[in-house]
TrEMBL record:
Species of provenance: Zhongshania aliphaticivorans
A GO term from the CC aspect: membrane
Positions in coiled-coil regions: none
Descriptive protein name: Motility protein B
Gene name, Swiss-Prot/TrEMBL: motB_2
SUPFAM superfamilies hit by this protein: OmpA-like (SSF103088)
Transmembrane segments: 16-39
Region (Disordered): 185-215
Keyword line: Membrane, Transmembrane, Transmembrane helix
Residue stretches of biased makeup (Basic and acidic residues): 186-200
Pfam families xrefs: OmpA
Amino acid sequence: MSASELDNGIDQEPPIWAIFGDLMTGLVGVFVLLLVWALGFQLELSQSLESEIQKREVAEQRRQALEEALADPLAAGRVTLRDGKIGISGSVLFSLNSAELQEEGRALLHTLRAPLQVYLGENEQLLMVSGFTDDLPIQKGNLQFRDNWELSAQRALTVTRALIDEGMPANMVFAAAFGAQQPVVDNRDSDSRSQNRRVEMAPVPRAQNANQKAP
């Protein structure tokens, strides 16, 4: 092989610095892609965290607004507020095994209707009125209610209708019955059972209108 042929063979091979440069270029490209992905993930995580914080702040503002609306009856001990649910003792509203509203209960609902209606309107929510009983069966001879389900349902309906009679729009409130289910304390004695005989009122989100497009 002649010297010229040897020189041509050497010239045809890529120089080592070119290979190293291509390798570094590839590594830089991978690094840039990883950096872009990391920044995008961090931004998405930050936005998700900010959204969650905003949701919690809104929930806390609503809770505080509800407490302010119920300040007077809460201070008087006529109602309780637990996890956003307004609890009224059954003894305040009804006599034992009865769904007829007592005067004390009617007066209490009269004071609650206006602040509740304002709160529901401002937050675009509905009011769910739920009836609960203790675990004791309906007394024999009571021909009006077959069991605790019927009693709790009628009590919830009575409170719902009373609120509507006081001026709350019918499309802002509805009734639900739970019978002896979901007691707040164990049914051990008369005191604990009296706590479980109650009516609760809880603001709940409105169902989305089918004619409206989801955001």
